[in-house]
Amino acid sequence: MSTNDHVATAGTTPTAPTGKTLSLQDVTTYLRVGRELKPVILRVDLHIEPGEIVGLVGESGSGKSMTARTIGGVLPKGAVAEGKLLLDGKDLFEMSRRARREVQAKEIGFVFQDPRAYIDPLWRVGDHMTEAMRVHLGFSRSEARTRAIELLDAVGIDQPERRMHQFPDELSGGMLQRVMIAGALSVNPSVLLADEATTAVDVTTQAEIVKLLGRLSVERGLSVLFITHDLALADIVCSRVCVMYAGRIVEVREGRQIFDDPIHPYTIDLLAARPTIAHRVARLPVIKGVPTSAMDAPAGCPFHPRCRFALDECREGVPAMVPVRGGMARCFRAHEDLAAMSAAMSAQESTQESTTESNFSPTSGGRDAAHG
């Protein structure tokens, strides 16, 4: 069940979505490294409807945050982005830099992982909340203050008038994250980018923030990109999940599908590496090798050095995204049941490990006992 489902069953009456559709088409972003431009995300296609929460998952360095920064226009100096960034059909990349920044400032809200790193410790909460409304919406001081109090109340902060006068160090991490969410909503954006927004808080606060994002996406018609490394959380929150590796999206599925029937070998291995309480295992599976970025990716499919199913063609060319089983996957073997093959291989490896451990157990009469 998605967060939107939880919200509906909790008695909330969602308003009709009034947001805007966000669409990335063939977007590539380069960072300047010395005199060269190096890719950090490659040919990304992404689509989010109003009122929808789409997850973006993957290991550190896969390009998740750079995707969000490309959308929000907060890339490092010298970065170059190309392709199409469409908001309600209008391509932001075709606008002048000034016009694009104005649209991004008004239409796209950003919620970062650690609010203490992005909220000025010398500013009171009220200053943080009202600045964008006064700059971008032309609100007077009193109008901005009234709106800020309403927003703080809307995200579940008690005594909002009092909080307006407090400094960030007087608030808990969870409360400060709510302040950041309220601030992101202050200019009535149509898109919300939540970049690891629940990582730095405890599980109780995490659940509250997840529920809040779900409610806001429905009530305000927000198009939400939810970036996380937590697959279980993505399962709860998102209606669709995109898996990213080395700057490329390698699989896109409906939320539950990707967990019940993964297609791409990377997705299969990510899910297999999750701890579970369903059964005991002697050792959690790991993905061999180390993650790579788009900058350092090898020729061919970037996952092939770590993939158990790699073919010769995987080393030579990058597979295209192909439709399969109600989703999309970037793999030459996407139409095979690799998940079943992986499960069989893992079971065989587990049996071999158990046999080896039994042979070397001091109580089994094996060599350890013989030499004891």
Task: Give the SSE layout.
Elements lengths: L2 H7 L12 E12 L2 E13 L4 E5 L6 H9 L7 E8 L2 E2 L5 H11 E4 L13 H12 L4 H14 L5 H4 L9 H12 L6 E5 L7 H18 L2 E6 L2 H7 L2 E6 L2 E7 H6 L4 H8 L48 E4 L2 E4 L7 H22 L7 H4 L2
Parallel strand pairs: 3-8, 3-9, 6-7, 7-8
Antiparallel strand pairs: 1-2, 1-4, 4-5, 9-10, 10-12, 11-12
Low-confidence stretches are: 1-17, 364-372
Sheet with most strands? 8 strands, mixed
- Rounded to an integer in angstroms, the radius of gyration calculated over CA atoms is 23 Å
| Class computed from helices, strands and strand pairing | alpha/beta
Would you tell me which CATH topology of the largest domain applies? Rossmann fold
Order of helices and strands: HEEEHEEHEHHHHEHEHEEHHEEHH
Number of helices: 13
Q: Which band does the percent of strand residues land in?
A: 15-25%
End-to-end distance: 55 Å
Number of domains: 2
The fourth-level CATH homologous superfamily of the largest domain is: P-loop containing nucleotide triphosphate hydrolases
Mean pLDDT reading = 86
Q: What gross morphology would you assign?
A: globular
Tell me which CATH architecture of the largest domain applies here: 3-Layer(aba) Sandwich
